[in-house]
Design a protein that fits this description.
The chain is of the alpha+beta class. The protein has helices spanning 19-33, 62-67, 70-82; strands at residues 5-13, 39-46, 53-61, 91-96.
């Protein structure tokens, strides 16, 4: 059976003037996240015209992601450390990876 992958997109919006603090918290969160078994990739995206908006993109083996017990612990720690930095609740979306292709530069 093919190992299915999922992508998780988490949208975060920082309070004005707290963008750098949120960015620092997310970078630390990503470093821990990327060490988890089954995690293939983590990216932190920053909106080009709205400095308050970030998106965390993760790619996981579906089975490992579902079984991850540390998930709630890591998000709880991120929430505790950065809750005052968020302007609205986290928006987390899960997507199946249907296909992926590298593009030539």
């Amino acid at each position: 059976m093919k190992n299915l992958k999922v992508r998780i997109l988490t949208q975060l919006t920082a309070h004005p003037e707290r963008e750098q603090e949120l960015k620092n918290a997310l970078v630390q969160f990503m470093q821990e996240r990327c060490q988890q078994v089954g995690c293939h990739n983590c990216e932190l995206l920053h909106h080009l015209t709205n400095a308050a908006q970030f998106i965390l993109v993760e790619e996981w083996d579906a089975e490992a992601r579902i079984k991850s017990e540390l998930d709630s612990q890591l998000f709880a720690r991120l929430g505790e450390a950065a809750a005052e930095l968020f302007i609205e609740p986290l928006q987390i979306h899960w997507y199946d990876v249907i296909t992926s292709q590298s593009c030539a530069d």
